[in-house]
Amino acid sequence: MLSSAPMKKMDILVLEKDLHMVTEALGEVGAVQFTEARHEEQAELLQKFRATDRLQLCTALLEAAAILSKRLRVEPPEDTRRTEYLPIEVIKDRLESIDNNTADLVKKEVAIDNEIASLTDTIDQVESFRRLDVPVEKIPEFSFLHFATGRIDGEKLGGLESEAGPNIVAVPMGIAEDGTTRIVAITSKKGRWAMESSLEKYGFKPENLGERFEGLPREIYAHATRRLEELHSTKDELAAELTALGARYADELSRYRRRLHIEQQLFQAQEHFGRTVATCVISGWVPADKAKALNEKLMEITGSRAVVEVGDPSPADRTVPTLMRHSRWIRPFELLVSTYGFPGYREIEPTIFVGATFLVMFGLMFGDVGQGLVLAIAGFALARSKLARTTRDIGSIMVFAGLAAIAGGFLFGEFFGSAFRPLWMHIMEGTNPLLLLGWCVALGVFMISLGLVLNIINCFRTRDYAAAVIDKNGVVGLAFYWGVLGLGLRYQVWNAPPSSVHLIVFVFLPMLVILLRVPIMGILSHDKDAHAGADAWIESGMDVFEMIVALLSNTISFVRVGAFALAHGGLAMATYGLADMASDLPAGVVVAALVIVLGNLLIIAFEGMVVSIQCMRLEYYEFFTKFFKGEGTPFEPFSLRPGS
């Protein structure tokens, strides 16, 4: 629970003819994160396995299968059933055969679609001119008149008419599909150039019907309409034939698409592998508890034609991925950790500490039985939804936060802001605020001390013994922190002056060790020159200053827990104060009830968000900075399982 799952380094040597089968078997197990295959002793024998050509062919076939499915009205495969292995050459031949069997119908459909588009455009053009009782091809032949047909923005039509005066007649014929107005502009032959200049000025878009059509506009419109109806009927018949063909090939196409998708993933995975003349090398990380079963499966499917080496990661290896394993109650809080960073393989895995301290702080800052119940119900609805996993995890955290708020409500005696007998105290009475702030500082002392202890453990686990002892976040820093706290307790509780031994052992000696830390590190690393000089003393002096300031400020920061608890109580008092004032108004009971409901909803939504942010701030800046680097990488195995 406090450590990530133990990992093993696995190297697999297989014959090239077995590679595809082995890769798929590893994907079915879903327990190996591939790494670049290297062999330390025989690196010259290994080449990078190249699957680029096969991958490109697979991608092209997937696109072809998708196009065929669309043409044949076949829905994309929703199921993720396993499919038997088929060479992609066989799939390629079958897709070409299906394409040939459907090509004639598809060509007809494309031709019909093109003609429908052309006729639709024709109808759109001539529809507005149906009242024009002149054959469109005869319009340019008038001896004394010049015609222009086209479209213009309706808002500009008035400006055109005003500027043109009596020399130009603009006859509106109707509204086009794009919202413009179709017009016939008429002027004398002599006024042609002036009219065309005015039309251009106002954005006129000409439509020379005579270049495309012959006959009266109403006859052209009627012919196009009849032909369009015929084409739609023919298209419906073609669609029925294509749908029938689609039903015939649906299962086959779906099977090919599923198989090609698997092949695509296999070829992508094989880009990590190495190869010799006749063999391939697969390297990766596997959880220790799955290594034996995986080895047995590989021996079974290859007929023992494989060599599998399993070993522990070296202490210096920082590439080992981290696999966090928690119960379903703790797992949602992984989100709070991974938002900051991912724990390294040898780091303490802090999820359980984060979950516990987050809930304690939230319960203290948001203590209210009724509001906590609303928050828990909202979180439960979110957690049980079909939304993304991250959203469901947020819902689960809201449930736990709501339960913590309920516990805090019983401690402080609050139910939707109204008071009842508390198990501990009413935080707004007497000296209770100061007592609460004192307990919040004590919580801060616990969390900071825990962070320092976890850092010491982390340093020992990574064999950084010097940092574990003489670093500002190591044993020396912890001794200094508790030494200063002891001085404060001695003075506040027993009203006694500090003893010389206490000052020397727990204050001045730790400060001296931190001051000499850099030179000491030089001695321990046998590199005195790299840890000597003015820079080393400046660095050490800054470490002492940072240790004093950081530990003091981090501890005081936890006062904000109590401050937000007091603010929560203050908002509740303000809500009921406003309700009392509203009760004196007409319909005062209704207004007061509305104020109470809206006030509580505002507190739940706004303060719930602010309190959550403050909890995370204390976790990240006061707790995590003591021990957590967050430089690890998550374990992401190659998997062909559904949903992976």
Provide a concise account of the structure shown:
Helix 2 (52-71) runs antiparallel to helix 6 (217-270).
Describe the structure in your own words.
- It is a single chain.
- The protein has 644 residues and is an alpha+beta fold.
- The protein contains 19 helices and twelve strands.
- The chain has helices at 19-29, 52-71, 88-127, 154-164, 192-201, 217-270, 288-302, 334-340, 351-365, 369-383, 389-412, 432-461, 465-470, 475-493, 500-515, 517-524, 534-557, 559-582, 588-623; strands at residues 7-15, 33-35, 47-48, 145-152, 169-175, 181-188, 205-206, 274-275, 279-287, 306-311, 414-415, 418-419.
- The strands form three sheets. Strands 1, 2, 3, 8, 9 and 10 form a six-stranded antiparallel sheet that branches.
- Helix 10 packs antiparallel against helix 11 (389-412), helix 12 (432-461) crosses helix 17 and helix 14 (475-493) runs antiparallel to helix 15.
- The longest helix has 54 residues, at 217-270.
- The two termini are 24 Å apart.
- The model is unreliable at 41-45 (pLDDT under 50).
